[in-house]
Amino acid sequence: MIEKLTANELTALLNELPGWKTDDSATSIHRSFKFADFNEAFGFMTRVAIKAQEMDHHPEWSNVYNKVEITLSTHEAKGLTSRDAKLARFIDSITKTSADA
Ligand code: H2B
After folding, report:
1. Which is a GO BP term held by this UniProt record (predicted)?
2. Domain count along the chain
3. Which residues line ligand 1 (CB under 6 A)?
4. Which atom, in ligand 1's list, is nearest to the CA of 76?
């Protein structure tokens, strides 16, 4: 069973990835993205989907035209783990800051 991030690890992660915020119970992180149009949003989602499938770690997300909402959590651990950190880092690495909603 994968371990949850410690409080210190979570604080460090949020400092490293300032676009992401935790929910009140600190069991997930969330970020909103806004793209030029649906084509860009769906292209982004496709890249995230391929990575998620490779990692066997999947986002909760929604898309409305050019907006994408992503929540990351590790169901198996009922909280945040290094898998969420890795996927969030990947997502940020393929996203320009202008995609912040
Ligand atoms: N994604 C997320 N976010 N959390 C999980 O615990 C998880 C997953 N578990 N994707 C994986 C799939 C598991 O169900 C399969 C069987 O490996």
Report:
1. tetrahydrobiopterin biosynthetic process
2. 1
3. 56-58, 73-76
4. 6
